[in-house]
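Data deposition worksheet. Section B asks for the primary sequence of the deposited chain exactly as it was used as input, without tags or linkers unless they were present during the calculation. Section C holds the resulting structure in token form. Section D is free text for depositor observations; keep each observation to a single sentence. Incomplete worksheets are returned to the depositor.
Section A, Depositor: J.P.
Section B:
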Amino acid sequence: MDGGAAWAGLSAIVPLAPGEPAWRGLLPQLGVLRAVEEILLVAVEGVDAHLEAEVSALAPGTAKVRVLRAPRGRALQQDAGARAARGAWLWFVHADTSFAPAAAEALSRALVGPPALYYFDLRFAGDGPQAMGVNDLGVWLRCRLFGLPFGDQALLLPADVYRQLGGFEAEVGRGEDHALVWMAHAARVPVRPIGAAVRTSARRYAGSGWLTTTLEHLRLTLLQARRFRQRAWARFR
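Section C:
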């Protein structure tokens, strides 16, 4: 991997959209997690020129932080972070994620457990419609019944497994996280709940409407499942 020899710890990789402000709330949470050896904020090339200075002004945990630049696109940014990471484990965290105290213990257990693609359960924050509890349950069922966590569930896996699966592929377009999970299934890498939950924003549901957004996500999930499953099985058959 780029960036030096791997150690036994954990690299947290956070892709940032241009002008993304949510990392300011996430960084202190990551900084106090003992399992996290380094935090890689991956910004888009040519934007957010003052990001390094903003990071330096924020505490705690900023000694762990490196700022990277990559072409725009979540797959490209996360893959750039994975290639630069020095940890033996990679943890992909969206900027608008927040953690309950149980996250620290769950991470510690996973890092000494068997290799797998681990995921957190998902809870939506209170900035969306009242019906978001249905989505919490839907995510739980999707993961437990079909083994299909998505990227907003803070995916965690060993760096060597990430490389084995081919990483996040920009060419698949939207749904690079979904594609990676199907690659794991095809390669017989276990996909397991980590035993804790993360919370993420529900703003998009409030903006576009709960029913419209939920149905659109379901439609995309079904389309992607067929496409990515075929792609994964063709590769690892």
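Section D:
The chain has nine helices and eight strands.
The longest helix spans residues 210-236.
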